[in-house]
């Protein structure tokens, strides 16, 4: 899983996709997840980091994280590797 | 260094909520440090805002509509040329391009330059010919057909699924979900722009546009893709952002290389969710959002003027992605005496 080329994320959580012209506002958690994706972290590693940092049930986190990743994919912000 | 002085006549001064490209073209020209331009505004109506912008337009003249016929139209242009010499004319509206192309010899004899596509290039990209055009140049286009009578409307369902787009030959496009809506749009469009009315397959996706300039030998001198961010109820971009879309640029370069397009052009495309691009329209001139390209680093009006004056211009290959434009309306204060002058004397 990786962030698509040229996607720019500012410190404020403003994300601009230069390929489509779309822009988004990320909340702090979303920003954190995008940062981890840009660092090359995989889904399970991101899951563990978020679970350690926040008080959230594994079941809820699985659902929220997967929903978020699907959304990022639909908005053409991330690419999944072939085996994912 | 002495900059050359060029006297440039420009149309499309109607900077309204359906803006003509004249004013942004002038802004690009005025931003040039390569030449000094005297701008001669050519306007069809006495309330076109450009007439009342002395910082941008040095002198304005009223001209007849192209529908008055080529003879009175050119007679007026040459009359203006006698009084206020013109080195170059940049027509900016679809409906007048044909007249200027047809009159290119007369204009050239009078030493008035143009930088326009050939009649063949102009004709083949018409909305009614778009399917043939797409096949010729290897670009996907939506299926389309033409309506020349009301009875043709009932035949649409044989070949198309609703919704469809109903388009005028020059301007206007409406989406129709049933034959009744097609009829309504057909009547409105044919009354305004004449026949035929075009029916086009509706392609679901995001509209993306490219402004580009060709030198006539197959080179793309400038190209900036844009995504509309804010659209008026007339479907015009009120805000947009320069995007980095390599596929769009590749399509543009390929088209210019094959067609050897000369002059400005706007490509209107739909990008589907599957990443496929469909050409929905080609505007054979500089579009009204040209100043975005200037702001992003490609001064298309300046390059057009240079090429029209016989200079060689190197292709511009980079631009600042993320450059945005947002339109606004502004109250110009004028005097009724100015209005009187343009209305009675036809010049200001």
Helix count from the secondary structure assignment of chain B: 12
Shape call of chain B: globular
Low-confidence stretches of chain B: none
Helix content of chain B: 25-40%
What is the CA–CA distance across the termini of chain A? 8 Å
Assess the beta-strand content of chain A as a share of residues: 5-15%
Question: Low-confidence runs of chain A (pLDDT<50, min 5 residues)?
Answer: none
Major sheet of chain B: size, sense and barrel closure?
6 strands, antiparallel
How many beta-strand runs of chain A?
Answer: 5
Question: What order do the helices and strands come in, and which of them pair?
Answer:
The complex is a heterodimer of chains A (84) and B (348).
Chain A (H helix, E strand, L loop, with lengths): L1 E2 L4 E2 L4 E3 L6 E3 L2 H11 L4 H11 L4 H17 L3 E2 L5
Antiparallel strand pairs in A: 1-5, 2-3, 3-4
Chain B lengths: L4 E6 L11 H9 L5 E8 L15 E4 L7 H14 L4 E3 L3 H9 L1 H6 L9 H6 L5 H8 L6 E4 L8 H4 L4 E4 L5 E4 L2 H15 L3 E5 L4 E10 L4 E12 L5 E6 L3 H14 L2 E10 L5 E7 L6 H7 L3 H9 L15 E3 L9 H10 L3
Parallel strand pairs in B: 1-2, 1-4, 2-3
Antiparallel strand pairs in B: 5-8, 6-7, 6-8, 9-10, 9-12, 10-11, 11-14, 12-13
